[in-house]
Write a structure and sequence with these properties.
With 760 residues, the protein is mostly beta strands. Helix content is 9%, strand content 50%. The chain is built from seven helices and 38 strands.
Length: 760
């Protein structure tokens, strides 16, 4: 059956090439929507992906996976949806995820790293079906972007507005690994009795088995958005509720894959094997087959998260030339990351008559409560558009490491539930982060063809840590770190050479604030001496980006060519020192500068009204400029001249799209060059890979029952490529010449999904 489906998918892909001839004489054509909008009028490299691209991807996909098609972007995830957060990684021009900025409708999402301290992942912030557009600025986001981590780029997500008419959308998806997803949205339409208020409410529920091993991935998402016209002004409010439950895949190494195979995973549901391995380890006896080390597998791992995100925005056109906007928001999060660890037995294990297991559950627990305000004002004065604003945020973040008991006979705790009643708290800290960012900008239209912009932002972030409890007194921390810069300039120009050709260029400086968490950044050392040293000696990371290029715009072709140079100073690296489950503090070092040069080319060609081709190519050369040297002058890591981790030099993406007579199809192919997960590039090299995804479907029309009905099929990893997707899942290593660093995750094999959609 599997081979028949694959042959059918291949025939569907071929049909895109021949369909224009086959259907031209007999079907009405609908022009394929542009794949990418190329940021016309922007002095920065900017592209926008529409909801059409999101709709054609597999249901439940992360918008980050769709953005992977854009130049300069590397995206990895070990699941077919790109939504499993432990494995999700996005890098842009050599900058990793925690060095990028992310917002939703202007509201900051933080750095979107796993278990982050100041936000939440986009896959928890909104259902993909409610995302309207995604805008990527590869080099530097707009001065108004609410982010303190956007050293190397900004992704801004925008939600769809409620419809002016009553209606809704109902989707049902089933597929590989027992996946099923239901999505329902109801639009009120404009209600005259309520002043034209319009709103929608939606719910999405998705459950899927892991593609290997035992366990499930679950998410339920509730979204609400309302827009109220107030004369010429408008008031927009939204609320999002996410309940995420996802079980982990085991971090692997090349040695493990060679010995155990790519389909090896944690032992769940085989509790007896997990107990036997833990028993052997804790008594010094030989491990049961096929274990070679105790870290080959644990019983299970999981991430559980509950998030509430809400905000309200007031847009006021004060006059024809003056506009004001204000956004207030709040986000609360309660989360736990779980691992069944053999390194800490449950209490009383080994005592006569004890029923305790020789293992326990180790958690990292997160509690976020942040709120903020964003104000903006713009005014036109002749040829000048002056804009400015301020963003403030207060964030309380609590983090703890705790352990929970298990019994030897059978597991008594739900791997997808929140744990309670710990028997041991290893550490617990509170962090307070206060952020203030102010910006001012002038966009000067000198002539109809020439426009320049110049402005700056001022940033101040204060991170304060206090210790709640620690089992080891040497891990007590207290104090403050400050990241600030009063003048971060951004200048640029746009020159329209002719109606079809536009020149752009820009220069931007940015600073990334220190991270306030016990598992990342300076506080991950969990040592007061390190906190003091950073406060007195280390500057926050900073970047200087120069970029420029040409945009092309014709009847059938649109595209962009860009070149860039980035200097990244005071780069902080954290090298892993052991298996992540041990929770040992990483070694934090300032490695000096990184120099990056690159070229990005992208374009889409409308071959016919029904058939288009999009392609992008990126070349990036990112190198560490310095060795890591200790205070005694000893070289700790020989990084000078080495390639930055998780930064392929070559990326190539191509997508073929066809839409005619109700039938549509898209075939996307992505080539990712080789990457390193070692700072010294000694071992730890992941080979290049090519992965293809296919979607095809049919939109019905005619009778009222058929109007708005659509059937869509998706095949991810079409050619069933055996490749490594995520690297650095267990942290980046100094070197790995023997391939034993447990920090890579294989990509999902070929998966099939079918969706039935009905708009009404």
């Amino acid at each position: 059956m599997k081979h028949h489906l694959f042959v059918g998918a291949g025939l569907s892909a071929l049909s895109m090439a021949f369909a224009p001839m086959a259907f031209a004489a007999e079907a009405e054509t609908t022009e394929v929507e542009a794949v990418v909008i190329y940021g016309e009028g922007q002095s920065r490299q900017v592209q926008t992906v529409s909801d059409e691209q999101l709709a054609n991807a597999v249901a439940g996909v992360s918008p980050l996976k769709v953005v992977d098609m854009l130049p300069g972007v590397t995206f990895q995830s070990s699941d077919p949806f790109g939504a499993y957060e432990w494995s999700t990684r996005i890098s842009i021009r050599g900058f990793n995820q925690n060095q990028l900025g992310f917002t939703l409708d202007g509201v900051p999402l933080g750095d979107m790293s796993y278990g982050n301290y100041n936000g939440l992942h986009i896959s928890r912030a909104i259902a993909t079906e409610n995302v309207d557009t995604v805008e990527l600025s590869q080099g530097a986001g707009a001065l108004s972007a609410a982010s303190t981590s956007n050293l190397g780029g900004t992704l801004q997500f925008f939600s769809r507005d409620p419809s002016e008419t009553f209606g809704g959308q109902a989707n049902l998806t089933v597929g590989s690994s027992n996946m099923h997803r239901a999505f329902l949205r109801l639009d009120s339409g404009a209600v005259d009795a309520l002043g034209g208020l319009r709103a929608y409410v939606s719910v999405a529920d998705q459950v899927s088995d892991k593609w290997k091993g035992g366990g499930e991935q679950r998410q339920r998402q509730y979204d609400l958005k309302a827009v109220l016209p107030i004369g010429s002004a408008s008031l927009t409010g939204f609320y999002s509720r996410s309940e995420r439950r996802e079980q982990d895949y085991q971090d692997m190494s090349f040695e493990m894959i060679g010995r155990l195979g790519r389909d090896w995973d944690n032992t769940q549901p085989n509790w007896a094997l997990a107990v036997a391995a833990a028993q052997a380890y804790n008594t010094g006896n030989p491990l049961p087959a096929p274990f070679a080390t105790i870290d080959d597998a644990y019983y299970a791992g999981a991430g559980v998260r509950d998030d509430d995100l809400y905000g309200v925005t007031l847009d006021v056109p004060v006059s024809d030339t003056i506009a004001f906007n204000a956004t207030a928001y709040r986000h609360t999060d309660n989360g736990q990351g779980l691992w069944w660890t053999p390194y800490v037995p449950s209490p009383t294990w080994g005592a006569p008559g004890s029923t305790a297991a020789p293992l326990s559950i180790r958690t990292t627990e997160y509690d976020i409560d942040r709120s903020g305000m964003i104000l903006g004002l713009s005014a036109e004065f002749g040829a000048h558009l002056i804009s400015g604003g301020v963003w403030t945020e207060a964030n309380d973040f609590n983090q703890a490491r705790r352990y929970y008991a298990e019994t030897a006979a059978a597991p008594i705790r739900d791997p997808l539930g929140f744990q309670s009643n710990p028997f041991f708290t290893q550490w617990a800290y509170t962090f307070k982060t206060d952020t203030v960012v102010v910006y001012l900008q002038d966009v000067w239209t000198i002539t109809d063809a020439l426009k320049i912009n110049f402005g700056f932002k001022s940033l101040s972030v204060e991170n304060e840590v206090d210790t709640v409890t620690v089992a080891d007194p040497t891990r007590t921390m207290a104090g403050k770190l400050t990241s600030e810069d009063s003048f971060l300039p951004q200048v640029g120009l746009v020159y329209e050479i002719n109606p079809d050709l536009q020149l752009f260029a820009g220069y931007t400086e940015n600073v990334g604030a220190f991270v306030s968490a016990a598992t990342a950044g300076p506080f991950a050392s969990q040592r007061q001496s390190v906190v003091n040293y950073v406060a007195q000696n280390l500057d926050p990371e900073s970047s200087k980006t120069i970029e420029g290029g040409l945009r092309f715009r014709g009847d059938r072709f649109k595209g962009v060519v860009a070149v860039y140079h980035v200097t990244f100073d005071n780069r902080l690296l954290a090298a892993s020192t052991a298996a992540p489950i041990l929770g040992l503090p990483p070694v934090l070092s300032n490695v000096g500068s990184v120099e990056t040069v690159g070229v990005e080319i992208a374009g889409d060609l409308q071959l016919t009204d029904a058939f288009s081709v999009y392609a992008s190519y990126s070349y990036n050369d990112s190198q560490y400029q310095d060795d890591v040297v200790s205070s005694l002058g000893v070289v700790e890591m020989a990084t000078a001249g080495k390639t930055v981790v998780n930064t392929p030099k070559n990326l190539f993406k191509v997508e073929f799209a066809y839409d005619q007579g109700g039938f549509y199809s898209r075939l996307g192919v992505s080539y990712t060059g080789e990457r390193y997960y070692t700072y010294e590039n000694s071992g730890g090299k992941v080979d290049a890979s090519t992965v293809a995804d296919l979607s095809f479907g049919y939109r019905f029309e005619g009778s009222p029952m058929l109007e708005g009905l659509e059937v869509q099929a998706n095949i991810t990893n079409l050619m069933d490529e055996d490749y490594i997707s995520t690297i650095g899942s267990g942290g980046f290593a100094k070197a790995d010449p023997t391939g034993t660093a447990q920090t890579i995750l294989p990509g999902a094999p070929r998966q099939f999904f079918v969706s039935v959609k009905k708009a009404f």
